[in-house]
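Database export, one record per block. Field names are fixed; values are copied verbatim from the stored entry.
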Amino acid sequence: MNWAIVFYNIMMNIRQGYYSFLGSGSCRNVFDLGNGYVVKIAKNMAGIAQNKSEYKISKSDKSKLFAKIIQISNDSSMLIMEKADKLYNLSYIWEYFNVKNEIELFELMEFQKIKHEYNLELGDLERKSSWGVIKGHPVIIDYGFTKEVSQKYYF
């Protein structure tokens, strides 16, 4: 598959209004590709850095805590990720992991492991917009905010 052509077509379809806009953060816009995937488009260098971080984490992670990324563009300005259903309340996550709050959640071994392995800023995961649900399983959908990204672009 020629991914350069795929990403070019995605940009053309966005410009023509074919994809639904799902949301925006300080660094990226997210569009629904309508096929079970979303595309995250960087708005700036911090967004490119977040795309790179997410891609790197997704390719090496075995925890199943993260929505998977299938491809990143050559310039890292766009990435294609599994689409998750919207999470309406963090209590769903707490119930799933059998904890009472985010403090207990982040003390779990699997969260401590990903924090150290990927240098994640776990505080960023306290927002429900960082989470989604795929096949009934909560997954992290916004995980590019690593310590390196934070230090380079936000402080």
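Remark 1: Residues 3-153 form a domain with the Phosphorylase Kinase; domain 1 fold (CATH 3.30.200.20).
Remark 2: Helices lie at 3-15, 45-60, 91-96, 102-107, 109-118, 147-153.
End of record.
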